[in-house]
């Protein structure tokens, strides 16, 4: 897709007037008597989400779009609804929405369609950005979100471990990064027993994808880890059909890590970046790993399997152990890890976990600024008792309660870095909202990107 953003300095672009109950009277003075008469005849009301196409001399003269007023809760992505309402053309913001940067971003993200398997009408919709906005940065952000959405939306028959690896290779080539993989039985030879155990039943060989970028120099070293379960049947502890239905999205953490990597590399942030993706299918066959199997992990910790559906934490345990070995300054993992995270916070607010309080505060602020919501949950030490095994060092599942926390505590056992962040993402929008079409979604990457830019930009 070509960029939605154009830079023609506004000449000839159709003006979009943002209005609220409070500002409508003033905007009326700017749009002219004819437009006001038309708006009144059409009974336009300046309410959030309402829009009106205004006639002009040679066609479309402008657009009115209602935003939340002073007393309303604001969805800063509301302008993301505009693309649905507007005919093809070049538009510009005639006045300031609540947040012009997020409005432009939502506008672009609102034009997204997953078009791989079905022709969708080609839109010629573009937004002439105000001079004050950083077109390049918005552009790479949109590319990143589209990359993640496309990867997540692609079904498992076309997005197995091999195709996920190809996507990482493609991104690496685009940015001059190195990318290698450890595949199949080599995982055993190179000591990634858990990645192998989870993925060995898949038709495609399991693998660990390892992308590196930037010169080691004195730059801070950041390692991103993404759960790349290309399909999660649950394994022998098979999921019921309703739970399995959307499990093509179980590589959403990997898609998120690649999206964030794209933004970091495209911006040329002064960091040394590594991206690790354990890519597997949690499949059912004679070679599936089983309940009560015990494996010695890469780190040497023995793990008793009590539920083969708690596979994400297993593949991440080996990947995190590797990430930890070269002592980076920050390890951040993204994973569609637990249903419990959704029970706790719903689909739109992924919980994050870290022992680094400064990082937590920065991320909370950044998430709010970017309209990329995140909420901290505790790594509540006493719940470690729930992970006790009678026969191994640790069990792969906790009790029936606090599941997002016990999953995070499980993974914490494999990391020693003080700056470790874990985000339990949903990676999916079940019903479309402004700027967020139904389907795969990129969560947490923009918030962390803004944090990294603030720290290292
Ligand atoms: N991929 C799932 C978690 C998931 C389910 C994320 C639905 C988003 C939506 C994960 O592998 C899983 O199956 N987790 C289990 C863990 C349980 C067996 C301890 C879960 O959450 O039920
Ligand atoms: Mn599972
Ligand atoms: Zn899973």
Report on this structure.
There is one protein chain. This protein has 457 residues and is an alpha/beta fold. The chain folds into 2 domains: 5-133, Leucine Aminopeptidase, subunit E, domain 1; 139-456, 3-Layer(aba) Sandwich (Aminopeptidase), CATH 3.40.630.10. The chain contains 15 helices and 20 strands. The strands form 4 sheets. Strands 7, 8, 9, 10, 11, 14, 15, 16 and 18 form a 9-stranded mixed β-sheet that branches. Strands 1-6-5-2-4-3 form a 6-stranded mixed β-sheet, with helices on both faces. Strand 3 and strand 4 form a beta hairpin. Helix 5 (135-153) runs antiparallel to helix 10 (252-267), helix 8 (193-199) runs antiparallel to helix 11 (312-325) and helix 11 (312-325) packs parallel to helix 14 (403-412). It binds ligand BES, manganese (II) ion and zinc ion. Ligand BES is lined by residues 232, 250, 307, 309-312, 336-340, 397, 403, 426.
Attribute tags:
single chain, about 450 residues, alpha/beta, Leucine Aminopeptidase, subunit E, domain 1, Aminopeptidase, 2 domains, nine-stranded mixed β-sheet, six-stranded mixed β-sheet, 15 helices, elongated, binds ligand BES, binds manganese (II) ion, binds zinc ion
């Amino acid at each position: 897709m070509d960029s939605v953003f154009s830079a023609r300095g506004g000449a000839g672009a159709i003006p979009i007037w943002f209005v609220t109950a409070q500002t409508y009277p003033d905007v009326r003075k700017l749009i002219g008597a004819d437009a006001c008469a038309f708006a009144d005849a059409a009974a336009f009301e300046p309410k959030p989400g309402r829009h009106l196409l205004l006639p002009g001399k040679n066609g479309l003269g402008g657009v009115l779009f209602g935003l939340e007023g002073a007393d309303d809760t604001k969805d800063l992505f509301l302008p993301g609804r505009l693309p649905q309402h507007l005919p093809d053309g070049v538009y510009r913001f005639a006045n300031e929405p609540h947040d012009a940067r997020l409005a432009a971003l939502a506008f672009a993200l609102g034009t997204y369609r997953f078009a791989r398997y079905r022709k969708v009408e080609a839109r010629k919709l573009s937004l002439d950005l105000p001079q004050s906005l950083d077109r390049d940065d918005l552009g790479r952000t949109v590319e990143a979100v589209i990359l993640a959405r496309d990867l997540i939306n692609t079904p498992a028959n076309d997005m197995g471990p091999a195709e996920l690896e190809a996507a990482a290779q493609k991104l690496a080539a685009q940015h001059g990064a190195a990318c290698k993989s450890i595949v199949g039985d080599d995982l055993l030879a190179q000591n990634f027993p858990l990645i192998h155990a989870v993925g060995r039943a898949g038709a495609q060989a399991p693998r660990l994808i390892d992308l590196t970028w930037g010169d080691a120099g004195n730059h801070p070293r950041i390692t991103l880890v993404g759960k790349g379960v290309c399909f999660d049947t649950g394994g022998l502890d098979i999921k019921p059909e309703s739970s399995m239905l959307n499990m093509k999205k179980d590589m959403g953490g990997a898609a998120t890590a690649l999206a964030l990597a794209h933004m970091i590399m495209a911006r040329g942030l002064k960091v040394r970046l590594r991206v690790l993706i354990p890519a597997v299918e949690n499949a059912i066959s004679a070679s599936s790993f089983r309940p009560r199997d015990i494996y010695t992990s890469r780190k040497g910790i023995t793990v008793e399997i009590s539920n083969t559906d708690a596979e994400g934490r297993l593949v991440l345990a080996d990947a995190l152990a590797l990430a930890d070995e070269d002592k980076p300054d920050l390890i951040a993992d993204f994973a569609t890890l637990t249903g419990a995270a959704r029970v706790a916070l719903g689909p739109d607010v992924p919980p994050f976990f870290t022992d680094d309080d400064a990082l937590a505060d920065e991320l909370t602020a950044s998430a709010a600024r970017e309209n990329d919501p995140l909420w901290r949950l505790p790594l509540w030490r006493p719940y470690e008792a729930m992970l006790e095994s009678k026969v191994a060092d640790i069990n792969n599942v906790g009790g029936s309660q606090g599941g997002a926390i016990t999953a995070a505590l499980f993974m914490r056992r494999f990391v020693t870095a003080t700056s470790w962040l874990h985000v339990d993402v949903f990676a999916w929008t079940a019903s479309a909202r402004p700027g967020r079409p139904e389907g795969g979604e990129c969560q947490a990457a923009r918030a962390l990107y803004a944090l990294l830019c603030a720290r290292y930009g």
